[in-house]
Design goal:
There is one protein chain. The chain is an alpha/beta fold. The chain is built from eight helices and five strands. The protein has a five-stranded parallel β-sheet with strand order 2-3-1-4-5, with helices on both faces. It binds thymidine-5'-phosphate. Thymidine-5'-phosphate (TMP) is lined by residues 13, 39-41, 72, 98, 102-103, 106-107, 159.
Length: 210
């Protein structure tokens, strides 16, 4: 029996997911909820090693899209079974920075892998564990890239080195996906003030997850 609530956050680079996850997590904890915050790829020891391979390792340079798809799915399979499902079983609220929709959009739409294998592999990785709600923060590709350029952290990773067209496809992929599944998705303008976005997320939770 899983009594918890599972909320995923999606959007392209620089869309402001981490800020909103931090804010929501603090809010929910103040209200007395027990919250687990995690991320993809990563969130487990195995997943963090996969994350390194996908983003930072020099051996990732030659990676083909099919390998990339399977590595993201492998990280997710572990995260679901080791962290997310047990937390939901304990009645926690799980906030996940990216989940299966990232694969649908980045590998399926932007990398142009065929839809059927992406869907099958996504479903295999998650089992029956779909988010109750998915918040998409939408920002124009140029805005997102400009934001990550100003980050204090180091050089761009392998995914961040893609060209602007790639991020435009990512954005479009999220818009199409979110509009096609309005019962699961909340689509928000990520260029609005963080306070405004936070309030809209809280409103959506109130309406959708009583
Ligand atoms: P981030 O944690 O900084 O958002 O970096 C994760 C990167 O990996 C980002 O470029 C999106 C990408 N990604 C995929 O391409 N497919 C996936 O399934 C996931 C979870 C992330």
């Amino acid at each position: 029996m899983r009594n918890g609530v599972f909320i995923s956050f999606e959007g392209s680079e620089g869309s402001g997911k981490s800020t909103q996850i931090d804010r929501l997590s603090s809010r929910l904890e103040k209200l007395g909820h027990s919250v687990t915050v995690t991320r993809e790829p990563g969130g487990t020891e195995i997943g963090e090693e996969i994350r390194h391979l996908l983003k930072h390792s020099s051996s990732g340079k030659e990676m083909c899209p099919e390998t990339e798809l399977l590595l993201f799915a492998a990280s997710r399979a572990q995260l679901v079974r080791q962290i997310i499902a047990p937390a939901l079983g304990e009645g926690k609220v799980v906030l996940c920075d990216r989940f299966l929709d990232s694969t649908t959009v980045y590998q399926g739409v932007a990398r142009k892998l065929s839809k059927d294998p992406v869907t099958v592999i996504n479903n295999f990785a998650i089992g029956d564990l779909m988010p109750h709600l998915t918040v998409v923060l939408d920002v124009p590709a140029e805005v997102g890239l400009e934001r990550i350029r100003h980050r204090v952290s180091d050089l761009p990773d392998r995914m961040e080195k893609e060209n602007i067209q790639f991020y435009k496809s990512v954005r479009e992929g999220y818009l199409v996906l979110a509009r096609s599944l309005p019962e699961r998705f909340v689509l928000l303008d990520g260029t609005e003030a963080p306070d405004t976005i936070e309030q809209k997320i809280l409103n959506a939770l109130d309406e959708r997850l009583p």
